[in-house]
Amino acid sequence: MANRTDPAAKSIRGTNPQNLVEKILRSKIYQNTYWKEQCFGLAAETLVDKAMELDHLGGTYGGNRKPTPFMCLVMKMLQIQPEKEIIIEFIKNEDYKYVRILGAFYLRITGSDIDVYRYLEPLCNDYRKLRRKLADGQFALTHVDEVIDELLTKDYSCDIAMPRVKKRWTLESLGSLEPRRSALEEDFEEEEEKEDNDQPVDEIEDRAYEKDQYRGRSPTRERDRDKRRDSHRHRDRDYDRDYDRDYDRERGRGRDRDRDRDRDRDRYRLREEKDYGREREGRERERREKDRDRGRRRSHSRSRSRSRDHREHDGGDYRKRHARSSVSPRRHGDGLEDGEPKKKKKKEKKEKKDDGTDHPDPEIAEANKLRAALGLKPLRV
């Protein structure tokens, strides 16, 4: 509950006021001892007492990036959201400079563009010294006007991103803001009026003449000015002539360069076409040689097959193969089985006829058997 925003607080720039501080820095502030002990239960009236006790300003410091008491009080102001009149009283407080810086920092975060320029620019005339704690924990010397300039011009201050504001000249052109006047402008005007009242009229006229002469209204200065203008004019004319000459020369070089580039491109194209033609002729020659070799192989295989067929035909195997291929397996087998006994019978008949054992006379047949056993010729009776 102690870290929640006041329910009556209004949203600033469309979000919760505490969201103007980054989440990491916000969590570090919630865990800080100063926040838990000193900032618990503070209101707008009691917060001034804590702001008067400040002796330095800064964002975070050390290795673990501890927040400073100044940053804890800024977070408390975002949480309780004090009224605008209280913030303006903080800024107008001249006795306590850290209270003024605290109010200016809060207004820079939450205020409008017009209020930022209206209430912060007069603080640029405050040159009092301030102590600032750096990131390494060391203290550095600064001034009120430097801190205000940082709030108006920089994007980050005390490790917090500053909301963007419009440029001053934009607000002046819109009529929302009056032109800025320096604090020393009135002093300068008073001194000029005193000098004009003390001096006589003749001295004033002489001084005006001297001013005019110094500004270049005398004849000698006008003559010198005309000479200088003429010299510049001639110099510009010479420069233009030289520039045109150089431009023409560069243009001619560019044309020559383009012509050479086109010539090289055509030459390269012709070379590529020649190389492509040579490669194509080589591929055709190789294809013709392959076709020729293939034809030779076919003719050689045909001649070998013809010679083999001729030899088989001469040996009588051609007929046997043809007969075997033309006859069915059963008939072919039957033919072989029937053909062999026939041949044997013919041989037996021939043998019988040669041996003489088939002679009708039994005696002669027996004698021929004996002679055949002895290896003698048969009897022919």
Automatic annotation (TrEMBL):
Comp. bias (Acidic residues): 185-205
Intracellular or extracellular location(s): Nucleus
InterPro entries in the record: PRP38 (IPR005037), PRP38_C (IPR024767)
Main location: nucleus
Signal peptide: none
Alphabetized UniProt keyword annotations: mRNA processing, mRNA splicing, Nucleus, Spliceosome
Domain of life: Eukaryota
Gene Ontology cellular component terms for the protein in this record: spliceosomal complex
Start and end residues of each stretch annotated as Disordered: 182-381
GO biological process: mRNA splicing, via spliceosome
Biased composition (Basic and acidic residues): 206-229, 236-294, 309-318, 331-341, 351-369
Stretches with biased composition (Basic residues): 295-308
Keyword rRNA processing: no
Domain Pre-mRNA-splicing factor 38 C-terminal, first and last residues per copy: 179-267
Record bears the keyword Nucleus: yes
Function: Required for pre-mRNA splicing.
PANTHER family for this protein: PRE-MRNA-SPLICING FACTOR 38A-RELATED (PTHR23142)
Entry similarity comment: Belongs to the PRP38 family.
Protein name stated in the entry: Pre-mRNA-splicing factor 38
